[in-house]
Structures are given as structure tokens and as C-alpha cells.
Amino acid sequence: MVVIVRLPKLTWTMEEGLITRWLKNEGEMVNEGEVICEIETEKTVDEIKAPSSGILRKILIQSGNVAKVNQAIAIIGSPDEPLPELIEFEERRIKISPVAKKLAEEYKLDVTKIKGTGPEGRITREDVLRAIGELKEKKIELPGRLIPLSRMRKTIADRLSLSARSAIHVPITMDVDMYEVKKILDNYLESGFKVTYTDVLIKVVATALKEYQKFNALFTENGILYVDNINIGVAVATDDGLIVPVIHNADNLNILEISKRLDELIEKARGKKLTTKETSGGTFTISNLGMYDVQMFAPIINPPEVAILGVGRVMDKPVVINGEITVRPTLTLTLVFDHRVADGAEAAKFLQRIKNIIEKPFNII
Q1: pLDDT, tens digit (0-9, with 9 covering 90-100), for 58-110
Q2: What is the pTM of this model?
Q3: Which of 1, 45, 275, 341 shows a CA-CA span of 20 to 30 A to 18?
Q4: Domain co-membership, 233 together with 286
Q5: Helix ranges restricted to H, the chain
Q6: Active site residues
Q7: CATH number for position 114
């Protein structure tokens, strides 16, 4: 029986994947569940496994080429099964509206290179018009150096554009006294453990989200999904761009466990070894730019999440305590939330709860 191997949709935003390496050659036997190729999807590298046992009869998408989600990339079957008609159908199948097809033919465009935004990747009239516009732009010659977008940079641009177009971003800011947290970090360091402010913030946010579940949610086409698990994503800068590994079930981990897990994820991120599982399933994101001397900033929400926390640098600031001026390590936090999901008062209470836990963190140590 002929089995078509298709590119699976590994994340909700995934639209295509780059076939980086085939581990099996045409004519070789493969077993069900055996890894047959590797793909680069958005910001991670993943493995594709054989859906059934048989002979790898035909590789439809060679290494170094891009396949769209659900596109056939290979065929598995018995040695004597006829394949020519099936191969031709799978290689040439392109979903395009009649109007878009006519317009593409008029401008002599290669529709296989046009990215469809309609249902199931269908190429629409607007997609063709966009391709025509891009073609005209290329004819404008200006001095300079053109650097094509990397796959990661393109993914970042697409996701941020989606977030900016859809979510209604509202930022609110609070200063937080980090005196007690700093003492905790010093105590850990004296005990031989290096714990960071980000480690503590992950635990604090996870604790607060248990009380304010409205912000541990995903905005979907069918409504707002309030997620049971608390999975905290942490924005990590790499040479290729920003990536967000996820600490799953962060509310069930202690600070040392969070610290160890985050270190592992950051190392894998910078070594380009993260899997899709390690960057998927996030319900809330923390973005920390304090190490770059940024005092405060309003990050863009990571869709389909509904909120993100921007973390600035810890600075010594004069504050009034018990009527006296003293200097305290102070952190500025900016919560950016989607106004479609929550109102300002709810967001303020959530951020205030984060502040209260940080300033009295004794129950999360």
C-alpha cells in the first residue's frame, strides 16, 4: 500500500519547513517510527518519522528545498507498486483561485513561488497582487547591499506583524523593590548556586498566574482558551535572532529547578539545538533586557498568548520607607496585555500581585 509522507504542522504558526537532510535514500527499507529526514521549522530543527514500514520509493522534496505544511515530501510503498501518476499529482498540486491564476498568467508569474494565505494555503488574488508589487519593487535600483531575510528573521517578522495587526497592545508599568530578592540571590550564591533575577521572575509569574488565569490564556479563532498548565516562555537572543524556549509547568518547579532548566534551554538555543517541543506550548512570555542596561520597554505579545512581561535593569533608586529616604535596588516591570481579553484594572491587579510576591518572596524560595 502506498503511503504519502507529508510535512506535518508542528506548531500553530508553522506554514513551511526546510528539508535539511535525508537520513534514508530512495530504495532503502524504513520502519514505522524511524527517523527518515530532518527539517528546519521556523526557529528549530526537528525530525520526521516514517508513518509506516516499507521501501522509501520516492523523495519528492530534496535536501535544501522548502515544503509547505501538508505537502507530500516522500512516498513509502512496496517495491512493485506503480507510482508515476501519483508522483505527478503530488508534485504539481497547487491550490489557487481562478481569478488569481488568470492574474498570475497575465504577469507571467511562477505560482509555485507565491505563498498562499487562503484556506489550506490557497493562493488568492491578494497574494498574486502582493507578488506583482514585490516584482515592481525589485526593479527600483538604489545603491546599497541587499541581505535576504534568514528563515528565523522571516519567522520573527511574520509573527510580530501578526501580533501587531491582531492584538490590542496595552502596556502598564510598575517599579518593584528587589531588596528581598537580592538577598535570596546572595544566599544562593554563598551556597554555591548561581540564580538570576530571571529565574526568580519565572517562579513569581507562574505563582501569580495561578491566581490570575485570565493571563494564562491563548486567543484563538474559536474563543479564549484558558490553559490549565502554566508554561513560561523566556525570550533568548541568539546570533540569528530572538527565540523563545518554554519552561513547561513552571509553577510545579522550585527556583533551582527553573534555573537549571533555563540554563539548559539557553545553551541549546544558542547552539541551534532546540526542538519544536522546547519552543511550543507557551502560555506567557518574559522578555528581559536588563542585561543591556535597558530601564524599561514594552515588548510585543507572542501570539496566540495574551500577555508578556518586559523586564528592565535593576537600579539603585532613592525610595521613602517609614518616612525616611533610603536607597533600594529597584526593577521596572512592564506588563503588555491584549485589551481584547482583559481590562486595565484586571491587568493592574495582576501586575500588582507580581510586585507583592517579589517584595515578599518568602513562600517561593
Answers
A1: 898 888 888 888 888 999 988 887 775 555 554 555 678 878 888 888 888 87
A2: 0.70
A3: 1
A4: yes
A5: 84-92, 98-106, 125-138, 151-166, 179-190, 197-211, 255-270, 344-359
A6: 339
A7: 4.10.320.10
